[in-house]
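Reading a protein record of the kind used here takes little practice once its layout is understood. An example of such a record is reproduced below.
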Amino acid sequence: MKILAINASYRGNKGHTRFLIDKLFKGAAAAGAECQVVTLAQLKINRCLACGQCQTGEGYLECVHEDRDDVAEVFSQMAEADILVYATPVYVFGISGLLKTFLERFYSRGGSGNLQLSKSGLMFHDVDHAICSKPFVALVCCDNLEDETPRNALGYFRTFSRFLDAPQVGALVRNGGRLSGYGHDPEREKQVPKILDVYRAYELAGRELAAEGRIRRSTERRANQEIVPVPLFRVLKRLKPFKRIMVERAREMI
C-alpha cells in the first residue's frame, strides 16, 4: 500500500497541516504502508492559462507548462499511489489557492470534448483515471470553531469525488488549531486534553487506511471531535450568548 499526501499549506512543512499528515502517516507506516508527502509550497506550480492547446492538434493532452514546472512529476507520483490525501487549511472558506491551482492542471489530462457519464451519473468529460480517480482522504484544518468554516472545502471534495469517479475514503476535519497550539505547544495541549485522543485517532485512521483502504466512521468521529473542555460544546456553540463569552476568552488568550 502506497499513500501519497498532497500538502497544500502555504506554510509547507512548518504548518499544522503537515503536523496532522505526520500523525496520520505514523499509523499508516506502522501498519506497513509506504508514505510520501508532496509539499506544493516547495514546488513550482504554474497556473492553467486556459489557452486550450492541450485540447487541440499536436499539443493534445500536453500542457504548455509540461517542462516548465513540477506538476508532471507530481502527477507521476499520484499515478503510482494507491490512496491520496488532499490536505489543506481553510482559506477564505475554501481549499487553499495552492491546491486549487494544482488541481486545475488536471484539465490537460482529459479530453474536454469527449463527453461521458461518471459512475454517479453526472455528465462530464474524459479524465485521466490513473491520476484523477484515485481513492482519497480529505484532510481539512482551520482555527475557527464554527461548523460553517470548513463546509465549502468539504463540499468541494464531495463534488470532486462524484465527477471524477474518485472514491472518498475518509474526511478528517480539525478545527481549533490555534487553541491546541498547532501540535507544537504542550502547554496549550494541557488546556485541551481531548486533543491527545484526536492524535491517537489520526494514527488509528492511518492504520485503517493501510489495512482496509478506508477510515472507519467511528475513527472519523474521534478525529473530528470538539476539543473544547466544555460539556455539550457542540450545542452551546450555536448560541450567541455563549459565543460572546468564547470570543472574550479567546481575546484574553492572544
Strands lie at 2-7, 34-39, 83-89, 115-117, 123-125, 136-141, 168-174.
